[in-house]
Amino acid sequence: MPQSLAQMYLHLVFSTKDRVPCIGAEVQPRLYAYLAGTLNAIDCPALIVGGMPDHVHVLFRLSRTVTLADAVKAVKVESSKWMKQEGGEPHFAWQGGYGAFSVSASQVETVTHYIRNQAEHHKTRTFQDEFRKLLELYQIDYNEAYVWD
Q: Does residue 135 form part of some domain?
């Protein structure tokens, strides 16, 4: 086959360091746009970015030439700088880890709806409970002692 073709959707989730709720409502739209722009710039088109004051969710298409680790590094490093300079949080930091979950093309709309409605989900569920549920849904083994940094 002379061409390399791929279509991989990923649902990326990560929180602020120690889950500090420092992403205020006034900065969220600009931060989400910046996160999307960072991914778009590395040929990983963002479909939707959303979240809460202590974490973000990103649905994006992973480029066939970019590793997941490199995409996550780019988005976290660049947005952390942006939050310090433009977001009014001079000590801002993301947690060290992340969760990345594969999404089939048939589930893109469902995940988009889920990300769009984060405020509704978090009326009854903490970030930790939400993340544990995703880990269970995707059958990812984890050690609770190392999930939260």
A: yes
109 C-beta neighbours (distance < 10 Å), count:
10
Calpha distance 22→147 (Å, rounded): 20
- Rounded to whole angstroms, the Cα distance separating 84 from 86 reads 6
Average pLDDT over residues 49-75: 97
- Residue 148 pLDDT > 90: no
Domain count, the chain: 1
Q: Looking at 55-149, list the stretches that DSSP marks H as alpha helix, in order from N- to C-terminal side.
A: 68-85, 108-116, 118-121, 127-137, 144-147
Handedness of CA 124, 102, 45, 20 (dihedral sign): positive
Within a domain: residue 2? no
Q: By three-state DSSP, how is residue 143 classified? A: coil
